[in-house]
Amino acid sequence: MRFILIFFASLLLAMPGRTEELVYVVSTGSAMPMTDFHDGVLVGGLLKEFGDALARELRMTPRYLTVPRKRVEAPLSNGQADILCDLRPEWLDGKDWLWSEAIFTNNEIVASRVDTAAVRSVAELRGQRIGTILGYRYAHLEVPLGDEFARDDTSSDDFNLSKLLRKRFRYMLTNSLYFDFQRKTHPERALLNPVAYKVSAFDTYCALPPRGKLALPALDRAIQALKRRGEIQAIVDRFRPN
């Protein structure tokens, strides 16, 4: 009997241990190349590949919780999730989140159809209906335009692009990673203006709850390791069409 107990104990010790989960919050407001959703489940895209790589570096198992853009902070607050990536402090309400070092560099742009002249300044957008995403903040337009910033909100970049192509408005606010990808891959890409107005360049980061399972120094070390090996740049390059 003692031999049998020792035998089963040795088997249990030899079995690989289950790694701790790292739960990401992902906004359904984004689209390819950042996120690829099937039936509400994140199955691919730049954010998933980054999340998988980061979890491997931390020796954790990734899981992705998808929510609308306006609800991304709630899972961090109530303990449902551990981390939220590809955002900036001024885009969120919470002031207590712990922020990592930068993960991606991007540009906020005003995009248009090929039959519409690209804007040359923010002032040209006064009173113009502009495609925007519900819950997103656009400080570089909200401040100078004030009440003349005419938002036309929808739930995602893809819905906005569809409305732009259907001539529901002349301009949409988006980012260069998204629009460059769509100009190379969208079925109606010939209708998209290759010239876009750059509002601002920006970096994005990951946010942690102050008393979460993941410590900020450990997160930063993992991000630095991925950068040092060129993994983050390689992920971005894979989603940059030739």
TrEMBL record:
SUPFAM superfamilies: Periplasmic binding protein-like II
Gene3D superfamilies: Periplasmic binding protein-like II
The organism's place on the tree of life at top rank: Bacteria
Matches recorded under PANTHER family: AMINO ACID ABC TRANSPORTER SUBSTRATE-BINDING PAAT FAMILY PROTEIN (PTHR35936:SF6), MEMBRANE-BOUND LYTIC MUREIN TRANSGLYCOSYLASE F (PTHR35936)
Protein name, UniProt field: Transporter substrate-binding domain-containing protein
Organism from which the protein derives: Rugamonas rivuli
